[in-house]
Specification:
Elements: E1 4-7, E2 10-13, H1 24-28, E3 31-39, E4 42-43, H2 46-60, H3 68-81, E5 87-96, E6 99-108, H4 114-119, E7 121-130, H5 145-156, E8 161-166, E9 171-174, E10 178-183, E11 186-190, H6 200-211, E12 216-219, H7 223-227, E13 231-236, E14 240-247, E15 250-251, H8 259-272
Length: 274
């Protein structure tokens, strides 16, 4: 079956889509995107993703050609027209001569196997540094080279992910995810001021912690804080929650998915399937 995408007002086969290249979106990475997960024909945390896109578009003066309600309708149609129930959905919006171009892709999502969640990720510390004074770090822009280079560096070294520090030496985030660690059954994560993305799944973790009276703290944390933790995990909208078991080949905690991490994984999965 051919992949069908939505591009600037109509559904077309992916290979037939043509986008102008002399636009700020193409030339300068002047755009935004959201990646979402569809479970059983339902987009997980749909409203939160669209609201973040709307807020970011306003900050960058990118005028979306459709209302959020219309975008919602198009995305559900994209999932349906491609014959999917569980899907990876990407919404991209970029600056163009017409104001803004829009692309919506829905593909079959291939999740990590369960053994990977049982084993957990291993990460390196990236040589790239995030600028904590730049508001762009908190936007999901198509100018994504910084994160892609950090991730590529990790893969080339044989790791699953890269931990990115800011210019002050504090942990900001990972190349594709937010980071949490647990010490004495309390939860810690870099603050937005540390220069991390305000991740949708990150917010869900706070909601779960609040519901079950788990103390959660945002702040400036360093690599030694990570090495001293009991458990660590990473979050994003596609993989959900992934245990992080080592950094630079140094074991974190017991080197396995801890009990509290497993609890968050179970609660997140339950919420996602509701």
């Amino acid at each position: 079956m051919k992949e069908i995408i939505f591009f600037n007002g109509k559904f077309v086969p992916a290979e037939q889509a043509r986008a102008p290249i002399l636009t700020p979106g193409f030339l300068y990475g002047f755009g935004l995107f959201e990646t979402m997960r569809a479970y059983n024909n339902r987009i997980v945390y749909f409203e939160a993703h669209l609201e973040r896109l709307k807020r970011s578009a306003r900050l960058l003066d990118i005028r979306c050609p459709y209302s959020l309600a219309k975008i919602k309708e198009i995305i559900y149609e994209a999932v349906k027209i491609n014959g999917l129930r569980d899907a990876y959905v990407r919404l991209t919006l970029w600056k163009s001569e017409r104001g803004a171009d829009i692309l919506i892709i829905a593909k079959k999502y291939q999740p990590y196997p369960s053994r990977k969640y049982n084993k957990g990720f291993c990460a390196c510390i990236s040589s790239f540094r995030q600028n904590e004074d730049s508001f762009l770090a908190q936007l999901k822009t198509t100018n994504y080279l910084f994160y892609r280079l950090a991730f590529t560096q990790a893969i080339q070294k044989g790791f699953d992910e890269a931990i990115i520090l800011n210019n002050k030496g504090y942990i900001a985030e990972a190349s594709r995810s937010n980071l949490f660690f647990i010490k004495n059954r309390e939860l810690f994560t870099p603050s937005l001021e540390s220069s991390c993305l305000d991740g949708i799944t990150r917010r869900v973790i706070f909601d779960i912690a609040k519901k079950y009276h788990i103390k959660a703290y945002e702040g400036n944390f360093s690599i030694p804080d990570l090495y001293a933790c009991d458990e660590t995990f990473l979050t994003n909208s596609l993989m959900g929650i992934m245990p992080l078991v080592s950094v630079e080949n140094q074991r974190l905690g017991k080197g396995t998915a801890g009990k509290l991490t497993q609890f968050f994984m179970e609660q997140y999965k339950r919420r996602s399937l509701q």
